Structure to design on (141 residues):
């Protein structure tokens, strides 16, 4: 694959959640090192700590991440993603949400509530090729 790819991972961690478990899962599943992870501390409504975790990957690093992600997602879930590409792509960026709780257990399960948000962008210069481009990206091995 010779495409320019940018992949981003983002999630909100509450004071009751152990960010080290997320670090461990990111490393165990995707091989993402701690120094690639940005962790920003914010204050919640009642002054409780909230952390914003984010990672941005580009080029070959993003391509490797994408290959690993595609290999982990179950065939059923991948079928669901591919069938709903129109609902998951906005401004030429693919958005996926996975369960944070299942992620800690080293699995990727689609979920909208309290998710790990993953966005994948690759330039598409011909609008009618948008969905076919992402279909190809999600079927790489």
């Amino acid at each position: 694959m010779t495409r320019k790819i940018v992949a981003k991972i983002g999630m909100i961690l509450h004071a009751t959640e152990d960010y080290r478990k997320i670090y461990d899962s990111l490393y165990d599943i995707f091989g993402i090192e701690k120094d690639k992870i940005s962790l920003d501390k914010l204050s919640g409504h009642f002054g409780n700590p909230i952390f914003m975790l984010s990672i941005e990957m580009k080029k070959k690093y993003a391509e490797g991440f994408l290959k690993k992600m595609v290999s982990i997602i179950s065939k059923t879930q991948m079928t669901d993603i591919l069938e709903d590409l129109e609902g998951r792509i906005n401004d030429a960026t693919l958005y996926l949400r996975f369960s944070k709780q299942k992620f800690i257990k080293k699995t990727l399960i689609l979920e909208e509530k309290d998710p790990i948000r993953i966005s994948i962008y690759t330039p598409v210069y011909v609008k009618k090729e948008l969905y076919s481009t992402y279909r190809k990206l999600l079927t790489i091995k």
Remarks:
- The helical segments are 19-30, 59-72, 75-83, 85-88, 100-104, 130-137.
- The chain has six helices and six strands.
